[in-house]
Amino acid sequence: MDFSFTEEQTLLRNSVQGLLAAKYDFDTRRKIVKSADGMSKAVWAQFAEMGLLAAPFSEEQGGFGGGAIETMIVMEEMGRNLVVEPYVETVVLAGGFLREGASKEQQAAHIPGIVDGSAIWAFAYAEPQGRYNLADLVTTAKKDGAGYTLNGYKAVVLGAPWAQKLIVTARTSGGQRDRDGISVFIVDKSAAGVSTRDYPTVDGRRASEITFENVKLGADALIGTEGKGLPLVEKITDQAIAALSAEAVGCMGELNKATVEYCKTRKQFGVPIGKFQVLQHRMVDMFMAYEQSVSMTYMVNLKLEENEAERIKAAAGAKVQIGKAGRYVGQQAVQLHGGMGMTDELNVGHYFKRLTMIDTQFGNVDHQLKRYSTAA
Amino acid sequence: MDMSFSPEELAFREEVRAFIADNYPKDLANRRTRGEMSKEDILTWHRILYKKGWVVPHWPVEYGGTGWTITQRFIWNEENARAETQALLPFGLSMVGPVIFNYGNEEQKKRFLPGILSADDWWCQGYSEPGAGSDLASLKTRAVLDGDHYVVNGHKIWTTLAQYADWMFCLVRTDNNVKAQEGISFLLIDMKTPGITVRPIITMDGAHEVNEVFLEDVRVPVANRIGEENKGWTYAKFLLGNERSGIAGVARSKKAIERLKSIATAELMDGQPLIKTDEFARKVAELEIDLSALEVTELRTLAAESKGKGPGPEASILKIKGTEIQQRITELAVEAVGNYGSVEVPTGEMAGNDFIAGPAYSNGAAQNYFNMRKTSIYGGSNEIQHNIIAKMVLGL
Q1: Please, which residues bridge with residue A149 across strands?
Q2: What is the pLDDT of residues B182-211, one digit of tens each?
Q3: Do B358 and A155 touch (CB under 8 A)?
Q4: Lowest CB count within 10 Å: A8, A92, A171, A209, which one?
Q5: What is the nearest CA distance from B127 to chain A, expressed in angstroms?
Q6: B333: which chain A residues are within 8 Å (Cβ-Cβ)?
Q7: Do A279 and A152 lie in a common domain?
Q8: In whole angstroms, how far apart are CA A246 and each of A235, A317, B147?
Q9: Could you tell me if A213 and A344 lie in one domain?
């Protein structure tokens, strides 16, 4: 039993911290969010230079052979700094599909672009009617010669305005919510028939609504086996859940630190408000919510390679924990900061908004509770 | 004990319901949901009611009240909520107005009440300061007598809609050498007076509702002081009591729950309406039950009030429970809209110019949720309301 980090892992954390401290303070982030692009290509290039974009790929794939714990470390630091750049979308999700589902040829064609920072990816899976059910798809890919023709609509595709490449789920056979008949495709965002409408999200990121109209895909667009894509989708989204849990831990850690600090210095009725027992207990509850979230985040990141049922329980359990804790810590951090917590100027509200959105990504507390309770 | 309306009260309900249906401008509702309300839009309903003579049902008849019973006023509020009319701004009508007719002199009543009723004067509340929030009495804005004027210096914060205000009612310190509560005076300040600067504060939902107000050598005629010098805390507390009693928002929450249910009916989970799922149905049921309890609690408070007992410290229950319910509704709306909760509705100058993804009912759900976090902070934080009940009701 050992919960300590290796020397390399500590070095990784220190270098990510160093980079973000120097290049991603809150004012810089605000400028990035408000810019026309909404992300920083310079920061992304620095992620590439530091090897962060290569971290989870094997050495043969041009990466560093890092695992879930390395991703967890990176994501926790991203959370602390409210990084908006699409690390989860590009490295964890698209990277995951390419690593675990793609052919050698596909890997050779696409991983180098991720590693060197030239290609940004987004994952187009959700549909308006489907809520959080990954199998509820009306987007179709019909066999067309050697390839496919893609038709459909994807909702709230995070990071898509920045992306050149998309991972798209579509139905190649079966009924609307069947587990069988789902396939995963690589689609160029610039392909004929792909149209996007871009917009900002409440947590300072960008997303698109995407319509596919008779988009022609070659045979080399298919990842894995036709019609058997759902297990892969579930596996990779669980990896994303593990990464988002770490991001949430980063957010909560910063909120708790800021709240305790504020309550030590803010005086009302002649004393620091942190002297009031009711607020002390509140902050203790926030602290415990955080610690429980750290535990679940370690757990899910250690169990991503276990059998399916174990993995699902770990991922769903972690998502429930961070959903509940994120809401509590976020709301109470705002409450204890009083009016200041409500302002756009202070970072507190921004962490709260990000935590709220992490809960909705890949299924909120209710969805994951159900998933947990029905896991074999 | 009887909770039902009499035939006369039911007839009254028909009358006001018809009036609202005939007179509330339809286009206003659309602009409000898209966040495009102008200053005039905010006042439209006020002006219509002023013309009708229904703008201050809660005031004594001699000052413009309608003479309605407490039950009639309750019905009036319900019907407005039901029709989702634009809420009237409380600063003049519910806050400073009653202070003026209770504690002001004849000159002040003549000068200020007509502008409050007609909405020709827009009022804002100069209470909180950067160092005086929950501990309001610790406020530091100074007013020093200089002939027939006070010279005011200080810094107010969280001043709602001060960007539009013509007047501010303001708590200032006029004596530093006594207990904090005993050195405060209540001034009415013309916002056009030299030395006043209003600076916007943008909240995390992107809205510009609140401001900072800086006062630098602002000269205020002594004639604009309400009541006696150094007795301002009495008037301030009277005003806060009124603020609390209106804050339960039961009727508006009822409507908001209806809206939540219609969202959850339209949203699907595995092909079924979300409202049909056990988890969500149960959450909505709990919310409705909490609201029923609050409704009857409010009615009990109103009944006591109609027998001449003013809103006591029990009103803090209405503030705590009312705001918890309002917040919970917005929280569940975010849950209900699912992925489209992420979509940001542009605010300020950008409003109305952009593509907004998702069904109309999902627009702004998350921003509304973020915005409503203020309710447990403002008007005396909910922690302070707990203290009031502990001290004043339970005697702890």
Answers
A1: A142, A216
A2: 999 999 999 999 999 999 999 999 999 999
A3: yes
A4: A8
A5: 13
A6: none
A7: no
A8: 17, 14, 64
A9: no
Whether the CB-CB separation of B213 and B200 falls below 8 Å is answered with no
Domain boundaries, chain B: 7-88, 123-230, 246-393
Phi-psi region of A269 (alpha: psi -120 to 50; beta: other; left: phi over 0): left
Whether the CA torsion B211, B216, B221, B225 is positive or negative: it is positive
Q: Are residues A318 and A297 in the same domain?
A: yes
Shared domain for A69 and A143, answered yes or no, is no
How many angstroms from the chain centroid is the CA of residue B32?
17
At B239, the pLDDT band (50, 70, 90 cuts) reads confident
- Same domain, yes or no, for A161 and A236? no
At residue A54, what is the residue type?
Answer: A
Domains in chain A, number? 3
pLDDT in tens, A72-84: 999 999 999 999 9
Helix, strand, coil in percent for chain B, rounding step 5: 55, 15, 30
- A2 in a structural domain: no
Alpha-carbon distance of B351 to B363, in angstroms, equals 12
Best probe of the B interface among A278, A360, A361, A362, by most B CBs < 10 A, is A360
Architecture of the domain defined by B246-393? Up-down Bundle (1.20)
Torsion on CA atoms B227, B228, B231, B235, rounded to nearest 10:
0
The range of the structural domain enclosing residue A263 comes to 231-374
For residue B383, give the nearest of A278, A342, A345 by CB distance: A278
- Is residue A260 located within the same domain as residue A148? no
pLDDT at B346: 85
Residue B245 has pLDDT above 60, yes or no: no
φ and ψ at residue B210, rounded to 5 degrees: -110, 160
Residue A49's CATH number: 1.10.540.10
Nearest-by-CA chain B residue for A205: B342
Residue A356 region by backbone torsions, left for phi larger than 0, else alpha for psi between -120 and 50, else beta: alpha
| CA geometry: angle A232, A172, A167, nearest 5 deg | 50
Distance CA B106, CA B103 (A): 10
Do residue A222 and residue A247 come from a single domain?
no
Phi/psi of residue A155, each to 5°? -105, 145
- CATH 3.90.190.20 assigned to B123-230: no
Which pLDDT does position B37 carry in this prediction?
75
Tokens of residue B209, six digits: 């509702």
Q: Residue A26: inside a domain, yes or no? A: yes
